[in-house]
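ingest -> validate -> predict -> emit
validate: passed (alphabet ok, no gaps, 140 aa)
predict: started
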Amino acid sequence: MDRLSLADIYHGTNERAIAIRGLLFTIVLTPVLLLPTPAREIVSSEAIAVAVGCGAVTGIVLSVCLEGVRIDADRSDVTVAIATLVSTGVATVLVWILLPREHLSTFTQFAIVFSWSFSLTSATRHIVWPAVFGSAGARD
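emit:
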């Protein structure tokens, strides 16, 4: 297993570089998501259990299912930015409609668990698995 330089991690397109970038993004994003006080409040143990369970399952499933999906280099950055903004707006409106006001903090907890399960699953599959079991399971 060859070593990755910082330039490979930043610009690399192989699965290991993408997994490391995702893990670093999750490490940076977690404290930012926990800054608002409502994000640290526990509204009910049942709501937290559902948010954590759904976040973990969704993160693992999407990590496995979206492995081969890449945005084409031919696409415009503007198109990708607009699609991201629209999908974020739609998701925000759905959360406001579906979650009662007192349970909105559970969405932040869902997002944290989702990002950790997604990035840890990806890192396990592309970094830990090949290191432990050899390159036979690697997909670089």
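The chain has one domain: 6-137.
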